[in-house]
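Notes from hallway chat w/ T.B., transcribed later so I don't forget. T.B. wanted the structure written out for a chain they're using in a teaching module, and asked if we could keep both sequence and structure tokens in one place. Agreed to drop them here.
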Amino acid sequence: MTLPQRTTDQLQKQSEQLLMQCYEQENSINCYGHTPRRSANPDYLRAKRKALQIAKKYKDTHLYLHLKANL
């Protein structure tokens, strides 16, 4: 059984959600549904690294590549 391919919009939304959740966990704050902006801020980089680790752990190549390139 294979899963259906995700659209670009679904992939974008899923990657934003994952990044937001990692950011909230790492920094003990509430983003109130807003995705953190891309920056060189150590808090952001820590959250992005954790999101990439999660995507890699579950072998979600499409999500991993999208996170790495776009967020």
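Follow-up for T.B.: Residues 12 and 66 are 8 Å apart (CA to CA). Might be a good example for the class.
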